[in-house]
């Protein structure tokens, strides 16, 4: 009985150590991916997106939603080292990313099937879109206003989508849909690579 208890404790320690190690590794990858930005379709040049939430989503699927959030947190703490927004941009990025991986992680944890993973990606993309709308309206757009007058800011979006006339329009017709799209793209990539990465992440023997 004591040998079994010792074995169980050893396994738990190994799992815990591996989870911490993989969390750190995925956070580092996420940090690097944050520098690989792409222009957002139908948006001004300063509106850009990246795939840095992908490692956090993988982590949330593999180790649970808390791990996904931790990866997002570490990534944004690292970004603080070179921030140009006084931490405001990093806060907004964390809120959006955390909402995405938290929703996906909880849904997938409930039932770990491919079908549930698909639903997790879809629902979490909507969650991130809503979080992005809130973050843009109350945090990011006011931040941009310190560099560009509000009317000019709105007009820069209106050049691509003429029906954008107000700050709320920017949020509803730009931030919301494109963050949902971003979530779906990241989710699709995760669906393609997750099963192949699982043995590496969890230290399982390849079959």
From TrEMBL:
Topology of this chain in the membrane: Multi-pass membrane protein
Subcellular location: Cell membrane
Keyword Transport on entry: yes
InterPro entries, A to Z: ECF_trnsprt_substrate-spec (IPR024529), RibU (IPR025720)
Keyword match rRNA-binding: no
PANTHER family found in the cross-reference section: RIBOFLAVIN TRANSPORTER RIBU
Protein name: Riboflavin transporter
Organism field: Dorea formicigenerans
